[in-house]
Model the fold of this input.
Amino acid sequence: MAENSNPCFEVWSTVAWDGKESLLSANLHFDRMERHAHRLNFSLPENFRKNIFRELVNLNFSEKSIVQENQPPFLVKISITNEGILSLSPRLNQTWPSVLKAITVSAPSWEGEIRGTKHGDWGPYFDARTLALENNADISLLIEHDSLIDGDRCMPILLDIDGTAYYPRVEDGALDSITLEQIHNCLENSGIPIRPAIITMNLILRAKEMIVIGSGMGIQSLGEIDGRKIGKPHGRLYESAMSCWLSRLSDGWESIDEMS
Done:
């Protein structure tokens, strides 16, 4: 569970880290932290971007990466409280099976601007993650009124029979995914239109394919939800998204030199 139950206590983001001095798409994460802090009714310190990188180079973390080349080697959770206190928590990234299994759980309910932010009361998401593991699944998908809102640590995307890829809408409570922001235009250029939508179970069950994406997991195929097979894994959506993601892993790293 989260240490503080006040959603407006902090804002945070988990960012891919090379284990040295660089973060993947750092400014996109920092921009989101600023947007979310504003929605949580506080402001971030003026120099927080450079301060994060100054703290980053001082991290004492000597673990050896265990993941494959299509995932970043390490992750670091960056948190800033409503009093401006900065903390960085590094960790190893984890490996994933070839095709993921998911269970569905009820989405947590927060009021107003708190919904869809990376805030200080993240306990329900941690609980959903634990519940997935207890049920021999890899992730939990968060459902509200029979519609898919989010994943416990990822953004779900489906490829519909009409050839369009759909993902949950921010206005319905989904997080604005930094991974999606990184690959969105690349996916469009590959010939797959991608749009926000209300993701009903009927839409999921007719999907040609589903993937889940995130800063740590990268791009993963999702083949089963609550014991029901979903589409055909490792299809066109997965291949296109993976190609876009590998490009980002190659050239998307930023260091303090890129901070204005």
Observations:
- The radius of gyration is 18 Å.
- The mean pLDDT is 93.
